[in-house]
Design brief:
Elements: H1 3-23, E1 28-29, H2 32-36, E2 52-54, H3 59-71, E3 76-79, E4 96-99, E5 106-110, E6 115-119, H4 124-131, E7 136-137, H5 150-156, H6 163-166, E8 173-179, E9 185-189, H7 203-207, E10 216-223, E11 225-226, E12 230-238, H8 241-253, E13 260-265, H9 266-276, E14 286-294, H10 296-312, E15 317-320, H11 324-335, H12 337-340, E16 347-350, E17 353-354, H13 360-373, E18 381-382, E19 388-389, E20 392-395, H14 400-419, H15 438-441, H16 444-457, E21 476-478, E22 481-483
Parallel strand pairs: 2-4, 3-4
Antiparallel strand pairs: 1-2, 5-6, 6-10, 7-11, 8-9, 8-10, 12-14, 12-15, 13-14, 13-18, 16-20, 17-19, 21-22
The chain binds flavin-adenine dinucleotide.
Residues 41-42, 77-85, 88-89, 100, 120, 142-144, 148-149, 151-153, 155-156, 158-160, 211-212, 216-217, 338, 427-428, 464 line the site of flavin-adenine dinucleotide.
Length: 486
């Protein structure tokens, strides 16, 4: 056993003793079987069992846990529901996981000012559930919204189907309480009463999207919007992805701003239909879900225009959701699409690239070509209105050579997104998965500036280490797949 490993074991033993004195035993998981649950997030290609998981109940406890970790020089990782898709909570360097799932309450709702104060482990959908009766909602709606937490949304600046019209997390989070990496508790942005809104630098904005590297968010003030008066939800049926993509461009070019514009290709439609029995046409090359919302007086004309534009792009039919239930069922199918993949493959790698909307047909052709080249099936379900693609690369982790092909296929798709003037992440973040792409998308100067900001928040780089920036450690290399020691 080398000196570093010895030191790490000693630090963790002493840390565990301190944490037990602080929290007792019920809030600490150290049994290997319990820890197994935390070995990865929804990016399952790389796994590592954390040394400890702690489950605080309050900001005070979070701050004390962070101080204990610092005292023993042990890194720590804030964790929400673990639905992240880029390995952003992989416990490299035997980090301690600080799981916020017990801090999950909607603490206060201010109907008059349309705001709510929630704990960071609060599940995204619970916010809307708490204010629906007052005719309000929390707009960012990731497809994972029945599970993911507002803390995770803040750290990844989450989007969702309806962010085409309403914007992403940063547009709806007004402020938050955060435990800094040295244990100090601070508030950034607006409090529930608007009392601490500052005119200085927007540090709130700088923290949103930092992937848990700037501190542990503990309480969040979110903005609430009035639920739309009315809606029209349409389903365009196309024989090809190209035609559906052109319809997307034409709808936006016409000046209509749909609340959502989502696409499903044939393979994912077949899997979703087999799982949820909605009545989707199985022979369609692509389906386009177009949702329009707003004042009733406006909507019918917009819906007629959308129908016309779909038909002009060779849609074979355009259906409409006629009842609230039909609409809810349609969205349930769309939002559960990833879950249906289990019918097609034991494993899948979700990619998250962006291209200018006009390049959608080109990137979809490229994905098709990549699928053939690597002999892997790649269904697609994505936020077409944002140009935000989600190719789902199917593979079997029991076949190491297939894992390598899946990773290479994903890399080539991301490279192509960059060549087309896009980005390697639309909403799932960088994590460990795409850290090496940062140098392709940003200049060295840009990356150094980001790292400098990170060091200002966390000089020891102990909070969620080795994420986002290039040259970070990984838990796996992929040629061939094998565990490397970290
Ligand atoms: C089926 C499925 C569908 C999805 N659809 C979407 C989608 O439509 N749009 C979208 O944007 N994403 C989507 N995602 C990705 C994922 O749900 C989001 O990134 C989500 O915001 C992660 O939240 P979480 O609570 O699971 O966070 P985790 O996965 O636990 O953590 C994610 C990151 O947030 C940090 N973090 C978590 N909590 C805190 C905290 N309290 N303080 C500081 N940092 C914290 C972690 O350190 C990590 O870096 C999807 C994922 C799945 C599995």
């Amino acid at each position: 056993m080398n000196l570093d490993v010895n030191r790490a074991i000693t630090a963790h033993t002493a840390l565990l003793e301190d944490l037990r004195r602080l929290l007792g035993t019920e809030q600490i998981l150290s049994d290997p079987l319990d820890l197994l649950v935390y070995e990865c997030d929804a990016y399952t290609l790389e796994k590592k069992i954390p040394s400890l998981v702690v489950l605080p109940n309050s900001t005070f406890e979070v701050a004390e846990i962070v101080r204990c970790c610092n005292k023993h020089g042990v890194p720590f990782i804030p964790r929400g529901a673990g639905t992240n898709l880029s390995g952003a909570i992989l416990p490299i360097e035997n980090a301690v996981i600080i799981s916020l799932t017990r801090m999950n309450k909607v603490l206060q709702v201010d109907i008059e000012n349309r705001r709510a104060l929630v704990e960071s482990g609060c599940v995204n959908l619970w916010i809307t559930n708490a204010v629906r009766s007052a005719g309000l909602l929390y707009a960012p709606d990731p497809s994972s919204q029945t599970a993911c937490t507002i803390g995770g949304n803040v750290a990844t600046n989450s989007g969702g189907p309806h962010t085409l019209k309403y914007g992403v997390t940063t547009n709806h989070v007004l402020g938050f309480e955060m435990v800094l990496p040295d244990g100090e508790v601070t508030w950034l942005g607006t409090t529930l009463n608007g009392g601490e809104e500052t005119g200085g630098l927007d540090l709130r904005g700088a923290v949103i999207g930092c992937e848990g590297m700037f501190g542990v968010v503990t309480r969040v003030v979110v903005n609430l919007i009035p639920a739309p008066q009315s809606w029209r939800t349409l389903l365009g049926v196309f024989s090809s992805v190209e035609d559906a993509s052109q319809a997307v461009s034409d709808i936006i070019a016409s000046g209509i701003v749909p609340a959502a514009l989502e696409m499903m290709d044939q393979l994912i439609t077949q899997a979703v239909e087999a799982a949820y029995k909605f009545g989707f046409p199985l022979d369609a090359g692509a389906l386009l879900i177009v949702e329009l919302d707003g004042l009733e007086a406006d909507l019918e004309n917009q819906a007629i225009d959308v129908e016309r534009l779909c038909l002009a792009n060779n849609a074979t039919e355009v259906r409409r959701a006629r009842t609230d239930k039909q609409r809810a069922d349609l969205w349930k199918c769309r939002k559960r699409a990833f879950g249906a993949i289990g019918r097609l493959s034991p494993n899948f790698l979700t990619q998250d690239g962006v291209v200018p909307r006009s390049k959608l047909p080109e990137i979809m052709r490229f994905i098709q070509h990549t699928s053939v080249k690597f002999n892997l099936r790649i269904p697609n379900v994505f936020h077409a209105g944002d140009g935000n693609i989600h190719p789902l690369i199917l593979y079997n982790e029991a076949i190491p050579e297939e894992v390598v092909r899946a990773v290479q296929a994903g890399n080539e798709i991301l490279d192509r997104c960059l060549e087309l003037g896009g980005s390697v992440s639309g909403e799932h973040g960088i994590g460990v998965e795409k850290a090496s792409f940062m140098e392709k998308q940003f200049s060295k100067t840009d990356i150094e500036a980001m790292m400098t900001l990170r060091r200002i928040f966390d000089p020891e780089q102990r909070c969620n280490p080795h994420k986002m920036f290039p040259n970070g450690k990984r838990c796996m290399d992929f040629a061939p797949r094998r565990q490397i020691s970290v």
